[in-house]
Design a protein that fits this description.
The chain is about 50% helix and about 10% strand. With about 325 residues, the chain is of the alpha/beta class. The chain folds into two domains: about 5-180, Rossmann fold (3-Layer(aba) Sandwich), CATH 3.40.50; about 185-280, 6-phosphogluconate dehydrogenase C-terminal like domain (6-phosphogluconate dehydrogenase C-terminal fold), CATH 1.10.3660. Helix 2 (about 40-50) links the parallel strand 2 (about 30-40) and strand 3. Helix 4 runs parallel beside helix 5, helix 7 (about 180-215) packs across helix 9 (about 235-240) and helix 7 packs across helix 11 (about 255-280). The radius of gyration is 22 Å and the shape is elongated. About 35% of the residues are buried. Nicotinamide-adenine-dinucleotide binds near residues 44 and 76. Nicotinamide-adenine-dinucleotide (NAD) binds near residues 14, 100, 101, 248 and 252.
């Protein structure tokens, strides 16, 4: 390993928003002697060559990982098994495998089933992202001041954990070590459920016009044009989240089923309580509720987690 580099050869598999941002960030910090990348989409590989985000854009996944001392998986969660199967026989014995997947328990099971038992596995999740996807959406500052959660198993080599932690720290992130199950429950309520609500509300609004017209009811129709025109009243933020990568989010919900269903149950109970307060004109209950949530929001701002790009119209608006 060259002294000034944290790793001599880093390979990134999957060059969408997260993978391409990592390649850019690692390059800008000069953290690897060599950066190799691979994506199974030929068009993505061509874009990455044009963008010059890595030293080598490989056409073969086995060549990409060969000789690497760190391999980062940045593919959709349901692709982990097939990727692990393809790279398993081509890895160096002392390689560290890490990833960026938004769910951790299932990732560990998928990777452990396919990788050599002795491999150093340090699963990770940068709680950072945008609603955009693909290599052109990436940017090197994405991880600055954001949390990265590492979920190593009990017997993981401490040196491997420390090296991955150091990499994220150098990219500007704060690192937390957490049990994989706990990670999946925390993210179910802080990230997965909000996305599900956004996906629901946007579809509900869009369906309204068509459904009411189809029923031919003599009722006041809220049109799609109304929804789009007046979306600044809160709806706009939901549409931004609901514009997130469909494939990635399909995988998140399929991979974190138990935790999401638990949080959804709790959410439904609270929604029903609010519904009752409105029906019973219980203003005191509503005011108490909204004051408490405003305090929570203030806490998020004070903790510096409200998003660096929050008050700009930049396409790099905060989301995870
Ligand atoms: P993306 O769709 O932008 O990129 C995924 C890339 O993986 C694509 O270029 C695709 O061609 C490639 N790919 C798919 N299957 C592959 C395979 N079998 N072999 C090689 N390449 C393959 O998605 P993204 O937003 O960068 O998400 C990637 C990972 O990061 C996911 O696991 C996701 O859970 C996690 N993550 C995403 C966000 C976010 O906000 N987008 C945040 C944190 C973590």
């Amino acid at each position: 390993m060259i002294d000034s580099h944290l790793f001599s050869h880093i390979t990134i598999i999957g060059l969408g928003l997260i993978g391409s941002s990592l390649a850019r960030a690692i390059k800008s910090k000069n953290m690897a002697g060599r950066i190799s990348v691979y994506d199974n989409d030929e068009e993505v590989r061509a874009i990455c060559r044009d963008l010059k985000i890595a030293d080598i854009v490989h056409d073969s996944i086995s060549e990409a990982v060969s000789g690497a001392d760190l391999v980062i998986l940045a593919v959709p969660i349901r692709a982990y098994s097939s990727v692990a199967k393809k790279i398993s026989k081509h890895l160096s014995s002392d390689v560290i495998i890490t990833d960026v997947g938004s769910v951790k328990k299932e990732v560990i099971v998928s990777l452990r089933a396919e990788l050599p038992a002795t491999i150093n596995l340090v699963p990770g999740h940068p709680v950072a992202g945008t609603e955009h996807s693909g290599p052109e959406a990436g940017f090197s500052e994405l991880f600055i001041d954001r949390w990265v959660i590492l979920t190593p198993e009990n017997n993981t080599n401490t040196n491997a954990i420390n090296l991955v932690k150091k990499m994220w720290n150098k990219l500007g992130s704060n690192v937390e070590i957490m049990d994989a199950s706990h990670h999946d429950r925390v993210l179910a309520i802080t990230s997965h459920l909000p996305h599900l609500i956004a996906y629901t509300i946007v579809a509900t609004a869009a369906d309204m016009e068509g459904q009411l017209q189809a029923e031919n009811k003599n009722t006041d129709v809220v049109t799609t044009a109304d929804v789009v025109k007046y979306s600044a009243g809160g709806f706009r933020d939901f549409t931004r989240i609901a514009g997130s990568n469909p494939l990635m989010w399909r995988d998140v919900f399929l991979s974190n089923k138990d935790a999401v269903l638990e949080m959804l149950g709790r959410f439904n109970e609270d929604l029903t309580a609010l519904q009752k307060a409105i029906r019973w004109s219980d203003g005191e209950q509503l005011e108490k509720w909204f004051t408490r949530t405003r305090d929570i929001r203030r806490g998020v701002i004070e903790a510096g987690q409200a998003g660096r790009f929050e008050y700009t119209e930049s396409k790099k608006k905060d989301n995870d």
